[in-house]
Amino acid sequence: MSDDSAAQKLRLHIEAAERLIEERKGLNEDLKERFALAKAEGFDPAIMKEMIKRRAMDRQKLAEREALIETYSVQLGLEF
């Protein structure tokens, strides 16, 4: 591979990565606005984020996690 070819390929990868970073910035701003809107409507963004994380989890792993949280809560006297 010639130096010019390698340099061109590197430049293309860098430019593509830069475009993706810019797209991500836009998406992050959209997400921030979505959570602000939800908060203005009375929803708790932190709880919403937790729900998003839980919905993405494997159901078995989520059940195990919930059981551990319950066990730890009882052990720490935090049961409700």
UniProtKB/TrEMBL annotation:
<feature type="domain" description="GapR-like DNA-binding">
    <location>
        <begin position="6"/>
        <end position="77"/>
    </location>
</feature>
<dbReference type="Pfam" id="PF10073">
    <property type="entry name" value="GapR_DNA-bd"/>
</dbReference>
<protein>
    <submittedName>
        <fullName>DUF2312 domain-containing protein</fullName>
    </submittedName>
</protein>
<dbReference type="InterPro" id="IPR046367">
    <property type="entry name" value="GapR-like_DNA-bd"/>
</dbReference>
